[in-house]
Amino acid sequence: MVALIDANARGVWIISATPFADNGDLDLESTDRMVDYYLGCGVDGLTILGIMGENTRLSQEESIRFTARVVKRVAGRVPVVVGVSAPGHRLAGDLTRAAMDLGAGGIMLSPPLGLRTEDQVIGYYDSFVGEIGQAVPIVLQDYPPASQVWMSVATINRVIADHSSIVVFKHEDCPGLRKLTRLRADEAAGLRRRVSVLTANGGLYLMQEMRRGADGCMTGFGVPEMLVEVCRLFHAGDVEAAEDLFDAYLPLVRHEQQPGFGLAVRKELLRRNGVIATARTRAPGPALDATDRAELDTLLARLARRLAEMGRTLPTAAQ
Question: Which family does it belong to (predicted)?
Fold first, then answer.
């Protein structure tokens, strides 16, 4: 049975890496292990073919093949959201239809480069939803550093109000805490229906975002067990324990958030954990050198000591 994403989405929706072999081909055996690992961490959903999934470095055929492998391995246990953002409707629409036919739980869609006005953003979503129909659940991605499109709260409200298929708002604007507060305030005032808000940026601002009304995160991190436990503690009402655990990991979270470079760190953590065979990214992607790996060793050693002081152990990465 296909699990669809909806406006009640909460917790951790992990942004999946895309494993590659040493020759740069898709590594589908590592993909199976990675899916098993993410599910074993207790994530609430998977999001594939995002920016950290190197979506722009895959062909359309590879994107569909990777989607098929992930959806088959997940086997309906959690929803799988597929990033379909593309410069034009044809590419995005074709991938949307293929993903949903394969059993995806929804799509993630960011406005494309080149939109300069609020009317253009509204028109883009009007035309795209008109093409694919209202039955496909959509995660509206707001990531200005990548899209170069800045959406006001008023525009976001309008797009959500106009399309019932938009059930999740992925909040990646930075700084964006006040934006998040305004979005929730507008809901409370009855200006539009409620949608799930999941945040990103590697979880860097996760605690503040959840305090301001986020339902969880749709992001990646090399030790996803931490994100899962932090969200569970927060939703159980133990906010201080959630803060304390997050604080212990913060140096590693910060290190992984280096623009352009962080993907190599995340993949190295997955490799050390035996999840993926190599930490390779596709050219011209980043790679760690010996100094980078030693730096990561130091961060992990410090994290292990801090966790020991808290009566905890480092889950599995780099053990």
Answer: Belongs to the DapA family.
Is 218 annotated to bind a ligand? Reply is: yes
Give the separation between CA 11 and CA 301, rounded to whole angstroms. Answer: 28
Q: Report pLDDT for 260.
A: 87
- Which residues make Cβ contacts (< 8 Å) with residue 313, sequence separation at least 6? 304, 307
pLDDT in tens, 107-122: 999 999 989 999 999 9
In the CATH hierarchy, which top-level class contains the domain 11-236? alpha beta
Q: Cα dihedral angle (120, 126, 127, 131), rounded to 10 degrees? A: 160
Cα–Cα distance, 307 to 56 (Å, whole number): 37
Q: Quick check: 2 pLDDT over 90?
A: no
DSSP state for residue 199 in the 8-state scheme: E
Which 3 state secondary structure label does DSSP give 266?
helix
Structural domain spans, the chain? 11-236
Give me the residues paired with residue 216 across strands.
11, 198
Q: What is the pLDDT of residues 62-75, one digit of tens each?
A: 999 999 999 999 99
Q: Mind giving me the DSSP string for 85-131?
A: --SSHHHHHHHHHHHHHHT-SEEEE-PPTT--SHHHHHHHHHHHHHH
Q: What is the pTM of this model?
A: 0.96
